[in-house]
Amino acid sequence: MNLGRARAVAYTDQKDGVTGIDKRPVDGPVRVAAPGPKGTTGSGLAGDTVCDLRHHGGDDQAVYAYAREDLDGWGEELGRTLPNGCFGENLTTNGLNVSDALIGERWRIGSEVVLEVTSGRIPCRTFQGHLGERGWVKRFTRKGASGAYLRVIEPGEIRAGDPIEIVHRPEHGVTAALEFRAVTTERELLPRLLAAGEALHPEALAQARKYVAAQGG
């Protein structure tokens, strides 16, 4: 479990020049709850700072999860150690293929919190600057291991090391990785997103509906 504090950096386009992407591990307990509408509120984790409310935070991006296994894979490619939280993730998971989680899939974390997968994560300039890797946005996009954003269904407290149990898994087959590809490099996949229905992040759902309408569907 990782939380970020606002820090001044040279690589963000935020007017005040600060970002909370550099998240650091904490033991907890940490309160998790729906933060409110995007653009007005930030993270679903108490004590976690979201600075760019234009693109991050809000109910449908309340929590970001990334697999430790994917971090290790990137570490091998980049020739460096990638600590938990360095991708800006709140939850660094073990033994869970986060990018292949289904939209609408629900996770129980510990004894109280239930989260629901909404979308993959689209990389940004701040992410690239934070890692200091040239061409990072294109590289991350090409690989497609997007991790997953989640909304809060049942609030509560979580601690580092809490088990994650999948308590609901839809049958539509639309994964966070597929959603990511559809809204970035493979727009022909957008119609497939409609199978996920209202569980899908509203912005991705709107894109899919617009695409289908334009195709005369």
Structure description:
With 217 residues, this protein is an alpha+beta fold. It has one domain (2-214): Beta Barrel (M1 Pyruvate Kinase, Domain 3), CATH 2.40.33.20. It contains 6 helices and 12 strands. The protein has helices at 68-78, 125-131, 136-143, 176-184, 190-193, 202-214; strands spanning 2-4, 7-8, 18-19, 23-25, 30-32, 63-67, 91-93, 106-109, 113-119, 148-154, 156-158, 164-168. The strands form 4 sheets. The protein has a 6-stranded mixed beta sheet with strand order 7-6-10-9-8-12. It has a two-stranded antiparallel ribbon with strand order 1-4. The longest helix is centred in the last third of the chain and has 13 residues, at 202-214. The model has no long low-confidence stretch (mean pLDDT 95).
What is the strand content? 15-25%
- And the CATH topology? M1 Pyruvate Kinase, Domain 3
Q: In the CATH hierarchy, what is the architecture at level 2? A: Beta Barrel
How is the biggest beta sheet arranged? 6 strands, mixed
The number of domains is 1
- Mean pLDDT score: 95
Q: What is the radius of gyration computed over CA atoms, rounded to a whole number of angstroms?
A: 16 Å
In which order are the strands of the major sheet placed? 7-6-10-9-8-12
Topology:
Blueprint: E1 2-4, E2 7-8, E3 18-19, E4 23-25, E5 30-32, E6 63-67, H1 68-78, E7 91-93, E8 106-109, E9 113-119, H2 125-131, H3 136-143, E10 148-154, E11 156-158, E12 164-168, H4 176-184, H5 190-193, H6 202-214
Parallel strand pairs: 6-7
Antiparallel strand pairs: 1-4, 2-3, 5-11, 6-10, 8-9, 8-12, 9-10
